[in-house]
Batch of 3 targets.
Target 1
Amino acid sequence: MTMNKGGKIAICVLVGVVALAVFGMITMMLWNWLVPELFNGPVINIWQAFGLLLLSKILLWGFGGRHYHQGRHAQWKRGLYQKFSSMSPEEREAFKQKMKEKWCRWDQDDSGRNSGASNV
């Protein structure tokens, strides 16, 4: 038995709505079980639970997805590699020294302690 494209889309939408309702109910039940007891916080309804889910999506996951962030990281890394590989050995050393001076300031400790080792 084969389904047409409209039937598959309807099933996907139905599964999405059910999943959203389940996640909303779980969020609402966990919130109402923990927050009022632990923090004297308010009891929330299902729409507020959906709002919390949306807020957590925005704050914690973003809208780009994982692949977007990995792509930007890979693009940055690839560009840096190309720039670094096109430098002469003298330019590389000058670049490394400049980076050390800018980002590795712990080597220039004013207190007179040994800067390479930590005394814990």
Target 2
Amino acid sequence: MIPVLLVLALGHAALDEETGIRRWLHLRGELAGARARIEALRGEIDRLRGEAQRLEEDDFATERAIREELGFARPGQTVLRLRGASASSHRIP
């Protein structure tokens, strides 16, 4: 009798889409994706913290960021705007 109950329980776990093994595998995949996204966001936070620190400590970095954002140039420099280019692709060195 116990082996029959065990087989029925395993069959139910394998076939039940709401609470069974399939659901567990799906949730496990979602968890892995969420963890990867968290790591990516942590990297982005670190990058932004570094950028904020540079902007606070380095006057040239602040000036450069302002020029990039507004599209300004220093005297003697030329700003080139390329059609379809993203904001990060036309940085001024």
Target 3
Amino acid sequence: MNPKTQRSIVLVSILLILSTSTFLILKALKDNIVFFYSPTETIEKFKTKKNVKKIRIGGLVVKNSLKQNKSKVEFEITDKKTKIKIIYSGILPDLFREEQGVVVEGRIKKNIFEATEVLAKHDENYMPKEVADTLKANGNWKGN
């Protein structure tokens, strides 16, 4: 083989290895990415989809919407435009309160969100950035 052919083979091999490794990395990340939505975006985007991967929804807990029994917790969250019902089996964080910012992770089925995790931040003024942006866009922002 002449040097030009050897260089071509090495170059093609390197490009093949790089493209294969990039593909595998992106495929692995796709399965682990969890997207964040507001309640309005969730209803609009997923009202017709049946199989929804894990997503996160952020908003404010609606006042007087919290209902607890032994094994289930039900509450609603809102972005001051749309409300979505959340069902959660588990213990809520100590800092979970009505009219406070919260992020829930899980799947939506028939406009009811089945949460696998509820996240509340320690700061009393906590507001997810996406929720704050939505509240600002709707004219309901009361923060700084």
